[in-house]
Amino acid sequence: MRYIYGPVKSRRLGLSLGISLTAYKACSFDCLYCQLGRTTLKTGQRKEYVKESEIITELKDWLKDNPVQARQLKFITFSGFGEPTLNSKLSVLIKKIKNLTKTKVCVITNSAHLVSTLVRKELANADLIIPSLDAATQAAFEKIDRPLAGIKISTIIDGLVKLRKSFRGLIWLEIMLARGINDSPREIKKLKEAVTQINPDKIQLNSPVRATTEPGILGLTSAKLKKIRAVFGNKAEIV
Ligand code: SF4
Known about the structure:
This protein is α/β, with parallel strands linked by helices. It has one domain: TIM Barrel (Alpha-Beta Barrel), CATH 3.20.20.70. It is built from 8 helices and 10 strands. The strands form 2 sheets. Strands 1-2-5-6-7-8-9-10 form an 8-stranded mixed sheet. The chain has a two-stranded parallel sheet with strand order 3-4. Strand 9, helix 8 and strand 10 form a beta-alpha-beta unit. Helix 1 runs parallel beside helix 3. The radius of gyration is 17 Å and the shape is globular. The site of iron/sulfur cluster (SF4) has 10 residues, from loops.
């Protein structure tokens, strides 16, 4: 299989089959904490990085060859080797997958392209979107996510607010917190203001625990994560 991986069992998604929609490390960010290594194709260009027909053929084969696991799947998740919303066949893929199986579709995204009305429309038939928001100030955003030049965090927050208004599925907003990078009281206050505006169904606080692209990126202590969770209120959980 070239584009499909897993299934992987996770606490938040249950049994999930992953699909990668991009070439290796095609992404508009180059996050300090990325587990895939440095971004080799830093781009905001949307195109059919991976042919939609090849993904669907692979998925059909997987579903046919793994009938027991297929029945147990909770999600088919777009994630993988880069930023899934860069694939211009997003909408077609979601529709075709829904014609093949009743399994819910989840899209994990860095949120950079949600400001586009077209991207939001293409995501409309997903069941769950897990967008990232690691900072609410431009300085912290650039430090942790190392975005493509010109991407503004205010635009990303605007895209997330618009997504919430139009999207009928679930939105679980993920915030990755790294020690000394985006965990200052000022940053958390600004993040809280942004999250209040966005109004996701859940806020998932995460912190690096495995090897990261840049050495020396540390996670927060469990006590600090709990304090921050309290700031975000009842919808927040530590994942
Ligand atoms: S957005 Fe995701 S794939 Fe892109 S660099 Fe960050 S963690 Fe890696």
